[in-house]
Design a protein that fits this description.
Elements: H1 2-30, H2 39-55, E1 79-81, E2 91-92, H3 95-109, E3 114-120, E4 123-130, E5 133-139, E6 145-147, H4 150-153, E7 171-179, H5 182-194, H6 203-211, H7 216-221, E8 225-232, H8 241-250, E9 260-262, H9 265-278, E10 286-293, H10 296-302, E11 312-316, E12 321-333, E13 339-350, E14 353-359, H11 363-369, E15 376-382, E16 386-392, H12 435-446, H13 458-466, H14 481-485, H15 492-504, H16 510-516, H17 524-534, H18 537-542, H19 545-550, H20 556-566, H21 569-581, E17 601-605, H22 613-622, E18 626-627, E19 637-640, H23 646-655, E20 658-660, H24 662-669
Parallel strand pairs: 2-11, 17-18, 17-19, 19-20
Antiparallel strand pairs: 1-6, 3-9, 3-10, 4-5, 4-7, 7-8, 10-11, 12-13, 12-15, 13-14, 15-16
């Protein structure tokens, strides 16, 4: 017995030694970019560790370096509320605006230091450490809560699983960006192209999509990186932002080396001018620079507005433009039958990625550009994301070029296209026989905001369709687990999870069922108001055009779309099958918490500190108010959050709609529906969030 105990202790010590060695060499390779051993030597150590952990599961540790390879086990992502809200910054696109920002700071606080950083173009992440070990990794989500992606983050080799050094707080968070380097992005898209899978539009989308992979082994193979830039916690022992980053670097975190302390506008401008050009040489995407006050005491003095901190701002680089040749135009068919022309281009490097395709929107846009095959065209990325064609270089147009002729039949099924009055797009009317429309409607039906059927994605839906198991949304409710288990990439456990989620979807409320049907022009908000107004699907189906228009948020165009949907015999057949499957076709009576907001109507726009948009909408309905989708003369209040659309704000001001903040709305609930401070301009209102001074993300 003693001999066995001694042997186990030796094995435990060896496992711990291997873990420390691998963590050290991993940091030297992925963070310091200064490897000390060969890949072969590293792999040898890793194989020894994996073998010991396999034979001695009693010594398992979720933060072992072996977790870097990931697992093929699937797991759902649980929603986690952020301990400290993950806030954003206001953006500026001109140096004049940036200079005004600096002037305002120094008028209030005097001359001070600034930290200039690159603004990474990835997906935000918050890492929580407890006793020096990675405890949890959560996406930004809506700023108040996000998805727990810890298992996937453990595969990102630049994220420390255990901290180095000492004197780190027992519990803290560090925020930053998950990035997909260009090399990883190009490799991933090459693999997807070879497999016939749709390509990612840009590294940001690829990084975000990778984090939501159910298999952490897939995440491990995609080569994500992580750069961190903000600590969050209570009583952190730092006097400045720079000091906190330097200490984080000592603990093993990957902190950008491209940060500088600047003392005046001239030094800030020099940083921006340098990186506006030099960013093209970086191995990862960046779309601007962030300027932050360095001193935490000065930050506390400056405080916050209702929308953003008064001590930090993001400067966005101008969109990059390139000239390339238009090779051809493809036409894509959406779930509603809408036709979207897409330009095929000679590959051109733009904002760090190779661009081969760009949207042309519709026939009117193509006519406006007078775009022709063989033209040299200017391409840019709006906000460094979506490639679009902005013009034609007429000086290089071939003499024999001819105007482009827009297609007249569906490229998928050959049905003659139609164009509805007031619509810019052309449509394929063959809803029941056009493959992209069929797949699109099924994918729309299973989305989170509709039926929320988990485990089904676009690839799985296509798999079911190609194997003759699903032809429309009603077929989903006839599926059995054995039919799915034998399909590629699924298996028994995945099949059972999918079937369980399908069965659970019959409890989804009527408003979401109505939205999930995919009626043209009927969005989420419209479906909710129709459900409240008509109370049942039968009532909607029997309603005349005049009766439909009387409902909130239903105009003439939407009414025509509804009537068209319910006159289609195939749609009626599907509805009857859904009824037999047990879906909710009637609205349930909802008990009010109060009548505080009775007869008051609201539009919610932007991001908020204390609530998600859905939470605010829910509160409005619980207290007797109405949610509207668009600003109009029927709206009483616009609840304005961060990054709200400027068009909504302008329209509200023009129509005299009262603009209130999140805190004003909260006050209404406790004040019989009245705002205690009359004529306040909440968008400009200064408030101090009840969060730790270092508990913010930018």
């Amino acid at each position: 017995m003693i001999r066995r105990s001694f042997r186990n202790e030796m094995i435990r010590e060896r496992i711990e030694t291997l873990r420390k060695q691998l963590e050290y060499h991993n940091h030297r390779y992925y963070v310091d970019n200064a490897p000390e051993i060969s890949d072969f030597e590293f792999d040898t150590l890793m194989r020894e560790l994996q073998e010991l952990e396999k034979t001695h599961p009693e010594f398992a540790d979720p933060n072992s370096p072996s977790a870097r390879v990931g697992s093929d086990l699937t797991a759902e992502f649980h929603t986690v509320k952020h301990r400290f809200p993950m806030l954003s910054l206001g953006n500026t696109y001109s140096l004049d605006e940036l200079h005004e920002f600096i002037d305002r700071i120094e008028r209030e606080a005097g001359p001070t230091e600034y930290v200039c950083e690159l603004k990474f173009d990835g997906t935000a992440i918050s890492l929580t450490y407890e006793h020096g070990r990675l405890l949890r990794a959560v996406t930004r989500g809506d700023g108040t809560q996000g998805d727990d992606v810890t298992n996937n983050i453990r595969t990102v080799r630049s994220v420390p699983l255990r901290l180095q050094g000492d004197r780190w707080p027992d519990y803290f968070e560090i925020r930053g960006e998950i990035l997909m380097p260009y090399a990883s992005f190009d490799r991933l898209n090459a693999e997807r192209e070879a497999a016939g899978d749709p390509l990612f539009a840009n590294p940001r989308n690829a990084a975000a999509g990778t984090l939501k992979q159910q298999s952490s082994a897939v995440v491990a193979r995609r080569g994500l990186d992580c750069s961190l830039y903000q600590l969050a916690g209570e009583d952190l022992p730092f006097e400045s932002h720079w000091e906190s980053l330097e200490k984080a670097r000592q603990w093993g975190f990957k902190i950008s080396g491209h940060i500088r302390i600047c003392h005046n506008i001239e030094e800030i401008d020099a940083f921006i001018h340098h990186w506006d050009a030099a960013r093209r040489e970086l191995p990862f995407p960046t779309d601007g620079a962030v300027v932050k006050v360095n001193d935490f005491a000065v930050r506390r003095r400056l405080g916050f507005t209702a929308k953003a901190p008064k001590w930090a701002v993001a400067y966005k680089f101008k969109a990059e433009q390139a000239l390339t040749r238009l090779v051809s135009v493809d036409f894509q068919v959406g779930r509603t039958g809408a036709i979207t022309p897409v330009a095929n281009l000679e590959p051109v490097l733009l904002a760090g990625t190779t661009v081969k395709r760009a949207t042309l929107h519709n026939a009117e846009q193509m006519a406006l550009l007078d775009i022709r095959p063989g033209d040299m065209v200017y391409v840019e990325k709006g906000g460094e994301i979506i490639p679009k064609i902005t013009g034609v270089e007429l000086a290089q147009r071939p003499a024999d070029s001819e105007p482009f002729r827009y297609i007249t039949v569906c490229p998928e099924c050959g049905t003659p296209l139609v164009r509805y009055e007031g619509e810019a797009k052309h449509y394929c009317p063959n809803q029941s026989g056009c493959r992209p429309q069929i797949l699109g409607r099924i994918i729309h039906f299973i989305r989170r905001k509709a039926m929320n059927i988990e485990g089904l994605g676009e690839e799985t839906v296509e798999l079911l369709y190609e194997n003759g198991l699903v032809h429309d949304i009603s077929d989903l409710y006839d599926l059995q687990a054995p039919q799915l288990a034998c399909l590629p990439r699924l298996g028994e456990k995945s099949a059972e999870n999918i079937i369980r989620s399908i069965r659970q979807s019959v409890e989804v409320p009527f408003s979401r069922v109505l939205f999930g049907l995919g009626i043209r022009f009927v969005g989420e908000a419209t479906a909710k108001y129709m459900a409240e107004h008509f109370r049942s699907l039968d009532a909607v189906m029997k309603a005349s055009r005049e009766e439909l228009v009387e409902a909130e948020e239903v105009g003439a165009k939407i009414a025509d779309g509804i009537l068209e949907y319910f006159t289609d015999a195939e749609n009626l057949r599907i509805i009857e099958r859904l009824r037999q499957a047990g879906l909710k076709f009637e609205a349930e009576e909802r008990e009010r918490a109060s009548d505080t907001l009775d007869s008051k109507s609201f539009v919610i726009s932007g991001r908020f500190l204390n609530h998600s948009r859905d939470e605010l909408k829910n509160l409005i309905e619980l207290h007797g108010g109405r949610n509207l989708a668009a600003v109009s003369g029927n709206v009483d209040y616009l609840v304005a959050g961060e990054n709200m659309g400027p068009a909504k704000l302008k329209k509200a001001e023009k129509l005299g709609v009262r603009i209130i903040s999140e805190s004003d709305f909260e006050a209404m609930l406790g004040n019989d529906g009245r705002i205690p401070t009359p004529a306040a301009e909440p968008v400009e209102k200064t408030e101090q969030p009840t969060i730790p001074e270092q508990g913010t993300l930018f």
